[in-house]
Amino acid sequence: MSEASPANEGTGTAKAAGRRVPLSRGLSTKLLLLTIVFVLLAEVLIFLPWIASYRLSWLKERLNTAAAVSIVLVQGEPASLSRAAQNDVLMAIGAKAIAVRDGGVSRLLVVADMPPNVDEHIDIANTSMLEGMTGALDTLFFGGDRMLRVFGPVGESDKEFELIMPDYRLREAMLIYSRNVAFVSLLISVFTAMLVYAAIDLIMIGPIRAMTRSMLSFSEAPDEPARIIHPAARSDEIGVAERELSLMQQRLQKMLAEQKHLADLGLAVSKINHDMRNILASAQLMSDRLRQVKDPTVQSFAPKLLRALDRAVAYSEGVLSYGRAQEAPPSRRRLRLYQLVEDVHGLLDIEEGIEFVNAVESAFEVDADSDQLFRVLTNLCRNAVQAMAADTESALVRRLAVSAERQGSVSRIVVTDTGPGLPPKARENLFAAFRGSARSGGTGLGLAIAHELVRAHGGTVELVESIGGRTTFAVTIPDQPVRLDQARGSLRRPA
I want to staple 461 with a disulfide (CB 3.0 to 4.6 A). Which of 141, 217, 225, 454 is the partner? Predict the structure, then answer.
């Protein structure tokens, strides 16, 4: 035993460790990563118009510079500029040639070495957003060795200026801008993710983590009240979930306590019945000798005593086998209900002043198991007698009546007493064991057993009425359905 305890403790520790969620797979980590990814995706969508606008702005600055140089050259004499001066002007702008269009006439102002062809023509004034984004991506990913023709008006001038230039400087500037935007976007993503994580962890993830820990802790020892979660005073979905979890744990703990109580009670009853069966068997042998006594009084109660002992022995054997099987299915026969009610009357311990009325017609028949129906009626009648026995006032009418009626193929047995009625708690838990008792010290097993036996017959037992001075229970049992093939077979058999 001393060696098994550490092993069990190690197993419990391993199970607890297996239930813990690693940080890499936790909700917090997933939330943080998803927030970063989503913010970066949003930054990418915003980056496209940004890079297109940056490209056009960069080109427009170069065109503005070229326009300023062009105005100076137009007012002076372009041919007076030396080749070195022209190269310096073009190098400062990063262009190959500068031209101006005025009145439909194009005039080349400065040129270094005219490229043989131009790869792309960019109209600064008439470039749409979609064209700008497409051109920016094309330059960013595939540019660097292309020749561009950039043209358009500058300011309020009616002249149109043109600039022929390579795109490698533009691509370098765009790459630097993209790197800076990516770095800032990453910082924004991380910062936003941390803020979102902190807020959601405080509002959602923290309480969910607490509920998870509570469920794991409760599953390890569900019988400890300290393991039940204490819900916070919140009106949102988390608050509702915490309160429902707390109620569920309380109900489950109560149910487990009742199940344990039932198990302990069943074990005790089984031990008691084991010895009681032997005692009843001895009493049965002695009661057999009563039949040999010629006294008329003895001969009148001897059969009732024998039937009571037979049923007691059968009940003791049934209790011993309760843990191994369910209640035996009813062995149904046609019974004379009047005689069965008389047997119930003979078994009841009715004190003086309580009247028992057997209002069942002598010819009334019911299709049921005699022993099980006897137990049902005994439980109902005993409860009624015990309820009326508490009333000691001599002027009170204390009457227990059993009647029956047939409605087609359904038998309805009515048990009515003039007792004080059932309290509200008993009515709410009428057929629940250990909760439906109407008197102090009762177990409520009688009605629970009656309900189970009647359901096995396909019927119902219900409380029809319960007020001061009148309590009525009705037991409804339908006849066994007749199988058509069996009925036809019996009709075809020769007499």
Answer: 454
The span from the CA of 207 to the CA of 195, in Å, is: 18
Counting beta carbons within 10 angstroms of the beta carbon of residue 131, is it exposed (0 to 12), middle (13 to 18) or buried (19 or more)? Answer: middle
Tell me the longest C-alpha to C-alpha distance in the chain: 161
Helix, strand, or coil (residue 53): helix
SS3 404: strand
Neighbours of 192 (CB within 10 A): 15
Closest CA to 337 of 306, 377, 388, 307: 377
CA dihedral 119, 124, 129, 132 (to 10 degrees): 30
275 and 319 in contact (C-beta within 8 Å)? Answer: no
The pTM for the full model equals 0.43
What burial letters (b/e) apply to 306-337, b meaning 16+ CB within 10 Å?
Answer: eebbebbbebbeebbeeeeeeeeebebeebbb
Q: Name the band, by pLDDT with cuts 50, 70 and 90, for residue 360.
A: very high
| DSSP-derived secondary structure letter, 190 | H
Report the C-alpha gap between 47 and 185 in whole angstroms: 9
Question: Rounded to an integer, what distance in angstroms lies between the CA atom of residue 470 and that of residue 466?
Answer: 6
Query: How far apart, in whole angstroms, are the C-alpha atoms of residue 290 and residue 296?
Result: 11
Strands (E), 241-354: 333-336
d(CA 205, CA 198): 9
d(CA 73, CA 215): 84
Q: What is the pLDDT of residues 120-172, one digit of tens each?
A: 888 888 888 888 899 988 988 888 888 998 888 887 777 888 888 888 889 99
CATH of 330-481, one of 2.40.10.10, 3.30.230.10, 3.30.565.10, 2.40.50.140: 3.30.565.10
In the numeric block, which tokens belong to residue 348?
């009841």
Contact between residue 135 and residue 149 where contact means Cβ atoms under 8 Å apart: no
Q: How many residues are listed for the chain in this entry? A: 495
What's the distance, Cα to Cα, between the start and end of the chain in Å?
73
Q: Using CA atoms, how far apart are residues 224 and 218, in angstroms rounded to an integer?
A: 8
Q: Where do the structural domains in the chain lie, given as residue ranges?
A: 23-190, 223-325, 330-481
Say if strands 410-417 and 399-407 run parallel, antiparallel, or are unpaired.
Answer: antiparallel
Token pair 């838990």 is found at 429
Rounded Cα gap, residues 98 and 126, in angstroms: 20
- What does the DSSP assignment read for 254-277? HHHHHHHHHHHHHHHHHHHHHHHH
Task: Pull the structure tokens for residue 422.
Answer: 């059932």
Q: Which residues pair with 403 in a beta bridge?
A: 414
Per-residue pLDDT band for 402 (boundaries 50, 70, 90) equals: very high
For tokens 């191994």, what's the residue?
A: 324
